[in-house]
Structure formats: C-alpha cells, structure tokens
Amino acid sequence: MEINPWYVSGFVDGEGSFLVSFSVRQKMTMGIEARPSFTISQHKRSINVLEHIKTYFGCGTIRYNIHDDTYKYEVRSLGDLLWKIIPHFEQYPLRTLKQKDFETFRDICYLMHTQHHRCSSGIRQIIDVAYQMNNFGARRYTKEDLLKVVGR
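User: That's the sequence. What structure does it adopt?
Assistant: Structure tokens below.
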C-alpha cells in the first residue's frame, strides 16, 4: 500500500512527537548521553497504520509500551533521523505548533551530527535548546541537574 506523504505529516501532527532525552552516563565524555527520537503512538487496534508508516520511512521499530497500553513507532538512529525523517518533514511540513518542535529537533540532530555533543559548550547548547521543546513534563532530569553534570 502506497501512503501519501501529506497523510504522514498530518498523522504526525496529531499523534507524533519529537524528543531529545538525556541520561547521565559516567562513561560518556561529557557525562551525559543525548538521545533524539521520533515517535508515533497508537492503540493496538491501529497498529497497521504504524506498520505502513514504518514501511514508508524504511527505518525504525514498533514496540509495545506497557505503561499506556499502546504501540509506538520509534526512530532513534541519528543517521535515519537525518537522512529519512528530517527530509520528509522539510518537504511536507507540519501544520501545527509541532512544527517548531520539529525545527528545534532538527537543529539538535545537526548539532549532534557535527559532534557538538562531545564538548562542554556543545552539550550545554543542546540541553538548553532541547528544554525549549514541548515535552509535557516527561523529563527525568531538570535542565539544571544536567548542566551541573557537564560542569563537573
């Protein structure tokens, strides 16, 4: 089944999210791991939509989320985000305020591609920009806590 690219963007406008999460990892150069991800959530009765979107993008995984009884299509590979996901939304832009989150997300992915997350000033910039995105309070660490780790 061929899927309309505008349908994908419209679907993501309602059901998708762009997020950059952070984990404190002592073994990382900066003590923090930045993880960009693109996700779409659906109830199991609509998992076929996620399968079609996964086929459309040619990347990512679908996994079950026990916490909210949904399935999630997720792309976490920086290469796939840069060369498959981001170009789609540049060509077929979102129509809601989620477009701003996408643009912030895109900027962070490009910063990571150019290795900015491997130096103190770069990871600070990524943290600062990521915490401007709409995340509905889903963060494990406060911005201040992460910046303290970088400042060690």
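Residues 17 and 39 are 5 Å apart (CA to CA).
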